[in-house]
Amino acid sequence: MGKFxxxxxFLFLSGCATLGVMEFDQLYGPSKVDNxxxxxxxxxxxxxxxxxxxxxxxxNRCVVCxxxxxxxxxxxxxxxxxxxxxxxxxxxxxGERLLTANISDSLSKLTELNSDSLAPLRQQGFFPxxxxxxxxxxxxxxxxxxxxxxxxxxxxxxxxxxLLNDSFDVSLDRSQQCPTIEEFAQYKSNFPLGGMPxxxxxxxxxxxxxxxxxxAQGAIMPATTPPTSxxxxxxxxxxxxxxxxxxxxxxxxxxxxxHLYLANLYFDKSPSSYFKLVRxxxxxxxxIAVITTRRPFDSPYAxxxxxxxxxxxxxxxxxxxxxxxxIAKRHMPYPFGEAxxxxxxxxxxxxxxxxxxxxxxxxxxxxNPFKTFQAIPDKSRYQFLLDQAQFSxxxxxxxxVCRGQIALxxxxxxxxxxxxxxxxxxxYPNDEFIKANTDLLQLPAATSDKTMSLLYWRQYANRxxxxxxxxxxxxxxxxxxxxxxxxDLIWSGKGNPNASLTVFRHYxxxxxxxxxxxxxxxxxxxxxxxxxxxxxxxxxxxxxxxxNVAHQLKTRxxxxxxxxxxxxxxxxxxxxxxxxxxxxxxYRGTSDTVKDYIFSDDFYQLPExxxxxxxxxxxxELFQFVANYTKNRQVNQFNLTSLxxxxxxxxxxxxxxxxxxxxxLLPQVSYVMVTNGDKKHVYSLINNSAHxxxxxxxxxxxxxxxxxxxxxxxxxxxxxxxxxxxKVEQAQLTxxxxxFTAIKTEQDYQKLKGKFAIRRTNPQFWQYAxxxxxxxxxxxxxxxxxxxxxxxxxx
Length: 795
Description:
It is built from 29 helices and 14 strands. By secondary structure, the protein is an alpha/beta fold.
């Protein structure tokens, strides 16, 4: 097609959109955010109706697909602010973005909905899904994209077929249409089966009537719930602690904010409410004015100023009540009650150290925590991170990476994690060593504002190599004896269940659990303080989900260094003669360049281990040593062997013996609900996909080793993006297990699903979804939230 023909098509389509706007303007008046905002506030009766009748529908039928950064069309419906913000045609997770996106996650700024906060979002490309024209019943339906999408599903329900036909695209990277209300007529014509919920059963008659009536009546949503008097007392106490004026107090508060800004903070042992730690330009007692920046260490000052002033704080750390729906994939609960208040005083405020000046916010410095927080004792910082180590690791697993195949193919599908004892700081890595190597620990975010920042990559590689060389030389100077390389080097936790962790990768998402869970993994990480801090500032604080491709690739490549360093720490506890073979097995098929980097001769010259190995499989013995040392056997209910086995436990445990080639046919995460009258048991089947190595960014499929795949059969819900659902009567469980373990082909798998699965097309789908959410909330209340249905398969 010639350039003039393309120009004609563009003008024609633009003209259609313009005509659509003109038509809606004539019928219902121009679209303005003030039209909705001028509605009367919700009455008590309206608030009760919304909370009891409407919100549960939105949560359980809409938010299950529309949450997090990867919500279709950026329509995040877990809060009133997200619904009012609306949708956007831009794709957040784009591997082709050469320039940093001119979009910000502004939901945290919408603590008050007004034209000053919403109008700029319209300029950024967000368009309304609720009617922003004349507030009449006709306009509230005809000019509401929300209403029209739900109505389209009512008019064109799912075909009565077990599998969706080719007119549906449920792939994760599907093309997103994202029509505005003015474009909806064309969308309806092109995609008659594209109503909401997309590629799932429609709402029940009762749900549809309630929701559409509410939309017709103006879609009035009540204001967020304010803190209770008891909660406000705790807020006041925390804000007093976090907003001291001295340099020491300001530095501590900055450190805590940069590590807790993603946390769902709670005050009580059984949390009923959560809170967010934010930066505000207003002090305690005044209305919060949230300072929104892309990263927590970006300058909070106006006009690009980077310098803080001692004794004259201009930034205040405030707690706001988190009224959003809790979605499991972003839910990172963190205790913030009396015990934590005392613990932070003990770690940070009581120790006698001097802070004479405040660090600046220049990117090259602010992105390096070893520079910024050098005045705070390293041991205090490390112990703070260890106290809630699951949360510390979960930040990079469940933080900004809602869709992270490229980010997560840097880790194995299943590995175990434990930590260096903070009491080992007298040896390695002490304050002097970290201070001497601070410049070598610079992270990629320091150059992420530069368009061609990937060209800086070699500098980081060279710095990391020099750092590892310095570390090995330092350890050699310590002249550690054989009897000193023992379990005393490992953090036992002293009763803290965070001392050992399990990570499961689910291709483009992952889970972190306390304790050693599931089958014995291929690899493990032994994490030190410099590693733990760098992981946070690389993949959490320093990661910009809207960043350009150079930033994202550089971040992924740097994580290779950190993974290899953590693995090397683990291997140093194995017998000297076994280290090289174990390491090489983990990196089968790597290029010579990668091998030259990984297999340093110095590494194998570390002192001999003092652990007393008795078998020909020391790696497995080491896992057992650490498990016993950290007393992690009883820290969770996920392992079938951790509690007395029920009848269903004993039967379903046989699934773990499936051969790797059969496991490879399974999706990443499946849930099995076993029912016996009113009793329900839920199990997670986690596919651990094996690879020859994870040292390369691309061509992951070429490194797959299906014969080595394993299946973790776990009690309870693990993973937040389920791919397949099963519902089995106790009396049928033997048959289910027998047929499941006999899977050899895709046809075998589909036959099994035909009998036992709750496919996305099943008329009972929503009933099952409600059942499993209720079970989750009842049995795992600490981690429970709404699951995400965007990865449900069509098989």
